[in-house]
Amino acid sequence: MMRRFRSLIFCGVCAAAAVLAAAEFRTSPQASVMVIGGATMSGEHFLPEVLAPLRAHFAGCKRLALVLHASHPTERDAMEARLQKAFAEVGPITAMSLHRLDAASARDLLQQADGIVVGGGETFVLLGELYRTGQLELIRERVLAGVPYMGSSAGANVAGLLIGTTNDFPTAEIPSRDALGVFPAVINPHHPLPAAKADYDSRVGKLKAYLRFNPGETVLALANASSARLHEGRVTIVGGTAWLYRAGAVQPLPVGQVVPELVR
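Below the sequence we write its predicted structure tokens.
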């Protein structure tokens, strides 16, 4: 019995190590990934601090695939309509949500679109659906081939190495916390600003506690309407307010700063 118990422990440790090992950064010289801390819109319009970075990020794009799995099914039609109007101000762009399509047609859209947008909502629901449909691997392949990716809130979470600091309840079962891995950090969106002292102090404390248990990870925290972009092999803060958290250290990141700690 003791031998069997030890064997089970060993297997469990090996399984956990395998999961940790799988959370790796995948990139290519063509990859272009923008992560946004959330709260990007006012009504049917992108906020000014978001609009300019999006125009640069999606320059030349004509057709976007909208991945709205993180929102409730009853809200997806309205979200699609809002995003279609907002992206019309970014450029001569058409946008369609995968939720309107059957599985084969959704994969075709992801294969044919020249830009991918993953919206916010429930991160566990989003990641679970990406695994279930096989879209996680397909989106990763398209990003590595040079198709620009933009993720806001939950969409930013799944761009990172794993969904470690999501702010969300686990509203769905997932096979793994490993995410797309196309951005070289764990993302924490909706990070409060220092002016909201109680909320700010609480978030700082939570992220420091997370890193005490996961000292090998790096967390990029983004305030609302704040963004970072991986482009041409480097990560730059392109809008708003951001922080880099590592074990024992927190570093504010001003707009325009290249983040060498995230270059691999």
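The radius of gyration is 18 Å.
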